[in-house]
Predict the 3D structure of the following.
Amino acid sequence: MNLRLLTAGESHGPAMTAILEGMPAGLPLDAAVIDHELARRQRGLGSGARMQIERDSVKILSGVLAGQTTGAPIALLVENDDHVNWKGKPVAAMSAPRPGHADLAGALKYGFNDLRPALERASARETTMRVAAGAICRHFLAQFGILVGGFVRAIGGESIQGDVQDYPACLSAPEASELRCPDAAAAERMRACMQRAIEEKDTLGGVVEIFALNLPVGLGSYVQGDRRLGARLAGALASVPSVKGVEIGDGFAAAGLRGSQAQDAICLDSGRLRRAGNHAGGVEGGISNGQPLVLRAALKPIASTLAPQPTVDLAAGVETHTNYVRSDSCHVPRAVPVLEAVTAFVLADALLEKLGGDTLVELQVRFAALRKAQLADLSLDDSDKVWWA
Ligand SMILES: Cc1cc2nc3c(=O)[nH]c(=O)nc-3n(C[C@H](O)[C@H](O)[C@H](O)COP(=O)(O)O)c2cc1C
């Protein structure tokens, strides 16, 4: 592992913090790059009241001097504006765990009588810092022309039909929609579905698609399971709260196909190697294959519903119902930048592993050499050349 990330902070504590270690020196960086991504994480239809309170903005505490990374750990801080509303007030103990949250399992694991310590740290507020660190990673990847994007594919039962063909357009188009969905007709169906759920005091989940363009061949490896790029990406997506399923390329749909239908034929196009499709989603044998990376994450519906849910009051030892805690009604649009961020982290880590080096300039020289070598390897223009020799 070349990049390391630790986050700390409670949802209603004074601040969220992170340390990102392993970024090479010489990457131009200012807070605006990170704030742009933090603002994206706050937007999206279905957001709850907390997002109106917070104005997330990062302080870079270390690792950047004169507008450039130094190679030292980058410490980041985002204040919780909601903290002042809690400070000095007695925090009511919570003893009725909410199903679908860390409340019960966390309290049993750590021996808490009050559920609050578990929910304060398990809260998705933590994803603020993953987005902050991920913003640096995606900025790093962009220096090599590698671009990471994402969009909402489904909310509730409403989904974009078929494959998205124009990934470059999806780098910006979804941002124009409150639903982060590039398909206007599907977005309208999702909006109506969300409206119905809210009226019925309920919540929704959905599917987010993440992609990366211009990846070089050769990130990750098949030589050990934990080096497989797909495994690393799947783990990263599944680490985001509420993600309950991950697909790479055709994913679960591939399980229903025949072997003859599910592969991407290898062909020649004017003497150059070409793939006839992208069922694999850009990863074969645990290695990036130069095709667009395509991933999908399934997010369960928000567990905190306005309609009370059955639970047990652990202090009183009686069955009861949950108290509503202020919450998103659908977090799927807001989860897009979070899932992009964790993907960018894995890809930046894999690129650093591939290239080595301590400075951006050093890495860029190696990247240019890698690209040149790969273009030569994949070209069959020279009839004497046996490409596998
Ligand atoms: C961006 C984002 C925002 C979220 N907002 C909420 C929320 O407002 N209310 C809620 O109950 N869950 C929310 N969640 C999901 C919970 O954090 C998650 O379901 C809970 O911590 C339990 O973890 P698990 O679902 O992974 O088991 C959000 C998740 C993400 C990624």
